[in-house]
UniProtKB/TrEMBL annotation:
Locations listed in the record: Cell inner membrane; Cell membrane
Membrane topology qualifier: Multi-pass membrane protein
Its biological purpose: Part of the binding-protein-dependent transport system for glutamine; probably responsible for the translocation of the substrate across the membrane.
GO MF: transmembrane transporter activity
Protein name from the UniProt record: Putative glutamine transport system permease protein GlnP
GO CC term (a single one): ATP-binding cassette (ABC) transporter complex
InterPro entries from the UniProt entry: AA_ABC_transptr_permease_3TM, ArtM/GltK/GlnP/TcyL/YhdX-like, MetI-like, MetI-like_sf
Alphabetical GO biological process terms: amino acid transport
Keywords from the UniProt entry: Amino-acid transport, Cell membrane, Membrane, Transmembrane, Transmembrane helix, Transport
CDD domains per record: TM_PBP2 (cd06261)
Ranges annotated as spanning the membrane: 18-37, 130-154, 166-188, 308-330
Domain ABC transmembrane type-1: from-to ranges: 130-327
Organism whose genome encodes this protein: Desulfobaculum xiamenense
Length: 335
């Protein structure tokens, strides 16, 4: 086995090449099998329609607000400028990027008439959902890490207040589904906070923040147990040695115990944070337009079910794989 080199007899030079080739054969056969299966349900693949949900060109129209006559249309390398003179003598100039001007000198225009238009590149629904997912995941990871670290330290404290509070928080969160907790955060806590904010004349808190706090609270409970296990895995002699050198409890934890514990808990934390990114797909139920929710909207608009859900899965894979690579890099640096 690779974890214990030297214990088994040497492999043939073709051993690795053969099984590597078998892996790619398995992938190709799986893809062909899926493609062949779709033929039986009479499905037409239209991958060419996917890019427009990442970037698209939107036509922006420039409309006049005056009731009057077009007195001048000037063009230069940057675009055009249309001058409209109203009946009461008011003159306004409208800049139109590009050369798509729809009026001429002497034309009479009314408020709302289109003077010209231009095309601008805009981010599509997939990029919008991807950004929201990244944003809410990053916020949740940071807050969840703070919750988990604090609760993990409180969990091993000999102070009954800290220890029992940590245990109560962990058991409450672990004892109910994440979906139910998100409902409570949005429909109960969110309603109370926003009503109090309205009473005090403050703006409402966006639902994204209730979703982020819900995810962070959920992740923090599991992170706390990971942190506790990591600290307790460090041999007691490390703490005793640090204290014998004159360090107090905080210094010993910060300089001796925690560096060793963090190195051990990094793989488990990576798994927890990867789960958090995937759990963010539940935020669609509280009207957060994250990646899964916008994919449902794209499927409803395009009727291209297979392509869009494959793209959605690929985007999640990119995010989780990137996080996994970052954590592996941190593990190598921590050794």
């Amino acid at each position: 086995m690779s974890l214990y080199p030297g214990l088994d007899r040497p492999r043939s030079p073709l051993y690795r090449k053969f099984w590597a080739a078998m892996f790619f054969v398995l992938v190709v056969v799986s893809c062909l099998g899926l493609y062949g299966a779709t033929k039986y349900v009479d499905y037409t693949w239209r991958w060419y329609r996917v890019p427009q949900y990442f970037f698209y060109q939107e036509e922006v129209t420039i409309r006049t607000e005056l009731d009057g006559e077009v007195t001048a249309v000037e063009q230069d390398t940057k675009g055009s400028e249309v001058t409209v003179a109203a009946l009461d003598g008011t003159v306004e100039k409208y800049a139109i990027p590009g050369a798509n001007v729809r009026v001429e000198e002497g034309d009479f225009v009314y408020p709302g008439d289109v003077l010209g238009s231009s095309k601008e590149w805009k981010a599509g629904l997939f990029l919008t959902g991807l950004w929201i997912t990244l944003k809410v995941s990053l916020i949740s990871i940071v807050i969840g890490m703070v919750f988990g670290l604090g609760t993990g330290l409180a969990r091993i404290s000999d102070n009954p207040l800290l220890k029992w509070t940590a245990i109560t928080y962990i058991e409450l969160v672990r004892g109910s589904p994440l979906l139910v907790q998100l409902m409570i955060w949005y429909y109960v806590v969110g309603t109370l906070i926003n009503q109090l904010a309205a009473t005090w004349g403050l703006p409402n808190v966006p639902n994204l923040w209730f979703g982020a706090i819900g995810l962070a609270t959920f992740t923090g409970a599991y992170t706390a147990e990971i942190v506790r296990a990591g600290i307790q895995s460090v041999h007691r002699g490390q703490m005793e040695a640090a204290r014998s050198l004159g360090m107090n409890y905080s210094e010993a934890m910060r300089k001796v115990v925690m560096p060793q514990a963090i190195r051990r808990i990094l793989p488990a934390l990576a798994g927890q944070f990867i789960s958090l990114i995937k759990d963010s797909s539940l935020l669609g139920v509280i009207a957060v337009r994250e990646l899964t929710k916008v994919t449902r909207e794209v499927v409803s608009a395009s009727l291209q079910t297979y392509e869009m859900w494959f793209v959605c899965a690929l985007l999640y894979l990119v995010m989780t794989f990137t996080l996994s690579v970052i954590v592996q890099y941190m593990e190598r640096k921590a050794v």
